[in-house]
Amino acid sequence: MAIPVDHYAVMGNPIEHSKSPRIHAMFAESVGHRLSYNAQLVPVDDFEEAVKRFFDNGGYLGLSVTVPFKEQAWQLSTVRTGRAEKAGAVNTLWMDEQSTLNGDNTDGLGLVRDLTVNNSVSIKGAKVLVLGAGGAVRGVLEPILAQEPSELVIANRTVSKAETLAGLFPEQPVKASGFSELEGSFDIIINGTSASLHGDLPPVPATVIAASTCCYDMMYSASNTVFNRWALGQGAGAVIDGLGMLVEQAAEQFAIWRGVRPETIPVLEMLRNELSGG
Length: 278
Ligand code: ATR
Description:
Blueprint: E1 6-12, H1 20-31, E2 35-41, H2 47-55, E3 60-65, H3 70-76, E4 79-80, H4 82-87, E5 92-95, E6 101-104, H5 107-118, E7 127-131, H6 135-146, E8 151-155, H7 159-166, E9 174-177, E10 188-191, E11 214-217, H8 226-233, E12 238-241, H9 243-258, H10 265-275
Parallel strand pairs: 1-2, 1-3, 4-6, 7-8, 7-10, 8-9, 10-11, 11-12
Antiparallel strand pairs: 3-5, 5-6
This protein binds 2'-monophosphoadenosine-5'-diphosphate (ATR).
């Protein structure tokens, strides 16, 4: 008799370049779990039905959700974790034994873990600048704040959006700003704008960077991202791109679904090697 296999997938649009199937396959192999995980291209108006169809089958247990469906996944989730609630977006869905659809957001945990564990950059007590105020930034704010930075400034082209995000955390040392008003340097600068998708830079004054500044671009690419190249040019002490965040957020998903957190460094090294054509 065939041994039943648990099924997982990532849903997005577009999806063909997703690294998630490879990442989860490597995780499963490393911990000796038998499961399937594939990428599903979902038409933009069909996400709700696609989720229903997926979980209607026995053994179909969890979904990763990516652009543009994270907000819809938040709406569909019957139960949400606190950080998903604040994020306004869900990237991890699973059906529990009571047939309740649960939603979490592991993006912020992935970012924090990549910074603090993989790169030994401490957020506690640090002056942190986050660039951008879209969905990607909202998704990571709570886990960053949980690390207790001394200050977190959200700077955005459209200042009102930064103000709205800062307003989600009234008890915390969070401020909103435009780019040109930024003053002084920061310990950690996180680029969460989509400017780099178009090869653009957020127009940030160079004074935000000091020799001890660590810059983190939530995007990744084969060589340094446009933002990280700029940061190095201004004398930043270290630059990191978002490949580690991608792997770490996936490991958090795997832990939620499978009850075991896989080793991430071998997967990250393999992907980095592939990305740089090695
Ligand atoms: P995502 O889901 O990737 O966060 P989004 O919600 O559309 O996408 O947000 C994109 C973010 O990148 C916003 O903060 C946007 O600034 P505005 O809110 O002012 O639109 C920012 N952004 C996009 N292109 C930019 C550019 N060329 N320069 C600076 N900021 C840019």
